[in-house]
Amino acid sequence: MAALTETHHESYAWKSQNNRLGMWLFFISESFLFGGLLVSRFFLWGGTRPDLPQLVPLIITVVLLLSSFYMNRAEVAIAHDDRRTFLRSLLITALLGTIFFLGVLFVEWGFSFNEQGKLVLGNHIHPTDGVYGAVLYGMTGMHALHVLSGVILILILWNLGRKGHFSAKEHFGVEATAIYWHYVDLVWVVFYPALYLIGTPVAHGH
Amino acid sequence: MSIFRLGLVRGLIGGLIGWAFGFALVVGVRLALGLTPQWRPMAPGLAAYEPAVVVAGIFFAIGFMLGAGTMTDWLKWARGIPTPFHHGPRIPGTPEWARYFSVDYSHKVIGVQYGVTGIFLLGVGGILAMIFRLQLAQPELNFVAHDVFNTMISAHGMIMIGSILLGVGAMSNYLVPLMIGASDMAFPRLNAFAYWINLPGAVLLITAMFIGGWNTGWTGYPPLSARAPLGVQYFFLGVFFIGLSSILGSLNIIVTTLRMRAPGMTLFRMPIFVWAAFATAIIQLTATQLIGLSFLMVLVQRILGMGFFDPRGPVWFEVDKWVGGGNPLLFQHLFWFYSHPAVYIFVLPGLGIISELLPVFARKPLFGYKWIAMSSMAIALVGFLVWAHHMFVSGMNNYLRVPFMFSTLLVAVPTGVKFFSWLGTLWGGRIEFKTPLLFSLSAISVFLIGGLTGPPLATVTTDLNLTDTYYVVGHFHATMFGGFVFPFFAALYYWYPKATGRMYSERLGQLHFALMTPAFWVMSLGQVYVGMHGMRRRVATYEEALGIGTGQLLITIAGFVIFISVLIMLYNLAVYARRAPKAAANPWRSRGLEWQIPSPVPEVSFATTPFVVGEPYDYGLPGSRYVQMAPLPAMTGGD
Questions:
Q1: Helix (H, G, I), strand (E, B) or coil at A119
Q2: Which residues does chain B have within 8 Å of residue A9's beta carbon, measured at their own beta carbons?
Q3: Which has more confidence, A206 or B506?
Q4: Cα–Cα distance, A139 to B612 (Å, whole number)
Q5: CA proximity to A74, closest of A97, A60, A94
Q6: Cβ of A118 and B34 within 8 Å?
Q7: Which one of A160, A177, B144, B437 is CB 3.0 to 4.6 Å from B135, fit for a cystine?
Q8: Per-residue model confidence (pLDDT) at position B313
Q9: Is A75 helix (H, G, I), strand (E, B) or coil?
Q10: What are the tens digits of pLDDT across the range A157-169?
């Protein structure tokens, strides 16, 4: 068993090319998930949307778009062996991503603790509010889950980068995480108008 | 070697710990927030601990995967520890038998793991079928309680689908790398993960029967599934994890096929089965997300009250500002967007097996190779455009019916291409009637029954009368047996000497064939017959006045004959063949790459890089060659 030979398929560049293809296939697959949610939104809401405050969604959208800039900066930095900028940009991206995530959780969904210390939802819309609540929480929830996993990946990268992993030539992990982050960002670019901008606002209690 | 070192045992222990952790987590969080540990159910009749049980089910899968060791290398990577890949057992020193019960990265081990798990689930689903066929053998029997009957037919459906997906995984994992001359799959760790996630899925699916069962059929339509007993939640979770396996496994197949082919193997020199596996993988990669989504939506509707499919809304829930508006039709659209193409996931690999075996046993070139390859791709593509033919009576907009009728009938064109090619390949061949070929022939005959009973269901006018009758059951079982079960058995017999190095008993193989083929004709045509005489689907009994008692009895007898014949196959492969003589290196005189190497396949499949120098199926053409195993002579300049 010890003398087993490795195959010719061993170079980093060759493997990265496999990984890259696999990654894009994963995005194609994920697009069907997000596409299904989007279809559900149009099937159930049609030409309407719930009448919700606009400011918070707008702010967190800007935050998320901004984070993509820093993610790109991190990737460019490592490609030029600029480790300081790489690490700093990763942290900024993770921070902005976390702000987005907490913004969805605690402002948009409105989780908070009341006087008795009970976790309660904010007042403007609940998951049980018919299709409006269901679709809004379903879409923002599925997206927030992806943001959260992206933040975790970025923090893993930061930790590895701190220990001296990745180089200008070998940084597929960074590339993959960056594209994943842009992808999650792009999904929000489609979700945000579908949830908050398109359609006639419907007020509480019809 | 202690059994506690086996991945399977560790996985189950990890799963149980995960389950307890998940349950305690949810109840603990509620207690910490000063709430009662149990829920106020979101719909009448739901279990008070349902959310905790669901979260526990998710943590069961996570605990299982961590315990089994599927994620060990990834967690190491995340901490910056190098994880070099090497052939051989993952943990050096693991005995050969233990590799099959532990996480292993070799596609040959994983392929066998898929196959054995698939056959195990086939047995579970088969036993369920035998029990409820007894109930249906005579009118107005009370052999099985009716709610148990409902659980059994539902479980039979989904467990068999899981079994088929595992069987497809077995064939594509074992065969694709060998057939294209690759050392392994492109992502061996992901491959192991994709297999192992099936196990918590299967466990949850089987557990679902014992925690209340569910009465929705395999389709799980709301609003019924939104009110069904607790078991439906583990049915959803089980399908969800098996679906995750489909997605990750298919991603691997696509990358492997596109990137790992031996030198000289252009796309149109790939074995036809690889084309079929590739087309299958495209469907699995994309459509599977939609069944996951649709089941997830019912799951959260039940535990969080999110009313995707609830037109009325949870009116007993006083905080609502927006009420209702849900639509059960949305579920059907999302569900069938996967579950119709899923049928092609089940049959395309099997049809590929038929095309793969016929030229070998007819000693003739495959008729219309490119057409066959493209017909698989065409079926995969058209398969995405036909889902609503399951919904002709659902109440969807009537104008959608005719387009879906035409797109459905269009599927017959690429399928017909395959039939003509099979006939063209057999025509004038010197056919060797060995067991794998016999099963291919039964597959063709049975798939023809399935194919010909299809158009009356695709046509709106006739479907309105036939829908939800046993006619559908007969049609569906004929396509599944013709498209998957018979070809899968053919593949098992054909590649058994490859995987084990031993030859099974040809006599027992032919006995299996002689029992199973006519029995299946009786069963399938019998189902079509009783369906046309008014037997409804999914009912636990029927009246004598329908006059179908004899038909039902024949179906039950035929079902038992099939069951016994499969037991003969298991005896043949698992018991008889162990002391059988060693098989010849290439008993079928195949030209395939996988037959040019020793059997069983050594740890490193190809000692030297194989070169593809010709067309794959030019049997009987003088001077033709497919592969050259020794290196080609070095090119000299100025040639």
A1: strand
A2: 183, 260
A3: B506
A4: 49
A5: A94
A6: yes
A7: B144
A8: 62
A9: helix
A10: 999 999 999 999 9
Nearest beta carbon to residue B87 from set A4, A17, A26: A4
Does the distance separating the beta carbons of B304 and A9 come in below 8 Å?
no
**Which one of A14, A25, A153, A159 would you mutate to disrupt binding with B, by most B Cβ within 10 Å of its Cβ?**
A25
Q: pLDDT band for B628, please (50, 70, 90 cuts).
A: confident
Tokens 């329908």 correspond to what residue?
B546
Q: Supply φ then ψ for residue A112, to 5 degrees.
A: -160, 170
pLDDT band at A3 (very low <50, low <70, confident <90, very high): very low
Which residues on chain A are in Cβ contact (under 8 Å) with B319? 126, 128
The pLDDT value given to residue B638: 41
Instruction: Give the C-alpha distances (Å, rounded to integers) separating A116 from A106, A113, B201, B233, B317.
Output: 18, 8, 40, 32, 21
Residue B355 and residue B271: Cα distance in Å, rounded?
9
Residue-level pLDDT at B578: 84
Superfamily of domain A30-112+119-202: Cytochrome c oxidase, subunit III, four-helix bundle (1.20.120.80)
What whole-number distance in Å separates Cα of residue B86 and Cα of residue B188?
A: 10
Give the C-alpha separation, B38 to B83, whole Å. 44
Chain mean pLDDT for chain B: 92
For A16, the closest chain B residue by CA position comes to B186
**The pLDDT value given to residue A124:** 76
Q: Which residue has the tokens 């309680």?
A: B145
Q: Return the residue of B nearest to A3 by Cα.
A: B87
- How far CA A177 is from CA of A150, B21, B244, B420, in Å, comes to 7, 30, 21, 48
Residue B94 sits at φ, ψ, to 5 deg, of: -70, 130
A138, A192, B354, B471 from A65: Cα distances, Å: 21, 12, 52, 54
Is the pLDDT assigned to residue B252 strictly greater than 80? yes
Judging contacts by C-beta atoms under 8 Å, the chain A residues touching residue B92 are 1
Contacts of A43 in chain B (CB under 8 A): 327, 330, 333
Residues in B touching A37 (Cβ below 8 Å): 293
Parse chain A into domains and list their residue ranges: 30-112+119-202
Q: Give the dihedral sign, CA A138/A139/A143/A148.
A: negative
H helix count then E strand count, chain A: 5, 4
CATH number of B111-314+325-608+610-628: 1.20.210.10
> How sure is the predictor about A119, in pLDDT bands with cuts at 50, 70 and 90?
low
Using the beta-carbon criterion (under 8 Å), do B78 and A156 form an inter-chain contact? yes
pLDDT at B46: 78
**In this predicted structure, what is the pLDDT of residue A8?**
47
Q: What are phi and psi of A121, to 5 degrees?
A: -90, 150
ipTM for the predicted complex comes to 0.92
Nearest CB neighbour to A43, from listed B42, B254, B327: B327
E-state strands within B347-474: none
For residue B184, pLDDT over 70 is answered with yes
pLDDT recorded at residue B406: 94
Residue A4's pLDDT is what? Answer: 38
The predicted pLDDT at position A2 comes to 33
Q: At what angle do helices B486-500 and B146-179 cross, to 10 degrees?
A: 50
Nearest chain A CA: its distance from B281 CA (Å) = 11
Per residue in B568-622, pLDDT (tens digit) is 999 999 998 888 889 888 999 999 999 999 989 999 999 888 999 999 999 988 8
- Which has the higher per-residue pLDDT, B81 or A204? B81
The token duo for B602 is 């050594």
State how far the alpha carbon of A44 is from the alpha carbons of B113, B328, B394, B464, in Å.
43, 10, 17, 27
Is residue B139 within 8 Å of residue B542, measured between CB atoms?
yes
Domain limits of chain B?
1-75, 111-314+325-608+610-628
d(CA B519, CA B98) in angstroms, rounded, equals 38
